[in-house]
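Appendix C reproduces, verbatim, an entry submitted by the partner laboratory led by Prof. M.T., so that reviewers can inspect both the input and the predicted structure.
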Amino acid sequence: MSALSAPATALLEHARGAQHAADLYLRPEGARATAEQIAELLHGVPAAHLDERTAWNLFFSAGELSLRVDVYQAHALFRAAAALVARLSTLAPPPGDPRAVAAEMAFDFFFARDAHPLLPLKRAPVLATLGELLEGGRVGARAALHGLGHLVALARGAGLGALGEEAGALVERFGAREGLDPSLRALAADALAGTLP
């Protein structure tokens, strides 16, 4: 990971103390500049030193900003969130670790809604990224299942059949694995049904 720029470092300090993520993504600098700094932080912040509040603020801000910028910047935010989820997953935090819980919800902030600008324009790379996270550790798999479950539900509601079929196929293959942890199998079933908690 490279050194963070001065604006990103200042935003990181703000993220550590901000009571609400809106304090980050509704900044006077504007959505585009803030999105660039959030993406930089998601790519560059050391996962081992990330605290609970900062993780929630960064993931929530990335999801909200992805609706306020163009599709390319929205995709950059999504990829950056996925990169931090993957780094957190390699740390293998125990279930219930606050950073793990924040990471597991990262893609809810993108896709737990009626529509998203990444879909259908960036459908293939979004699904590929979530599929890669399924192959990582427990945190990455749980985060991916949450994202895929919301894509299944979103596709049903918006009539995006191909998206729902592709997301559902990833979840089905994952859920059918031999020796899969029962909690991951249950989460996969909820994701496939589009009934995530």
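The chain has one domain: 6-193. Additional entries are available on request from the coordinating office.
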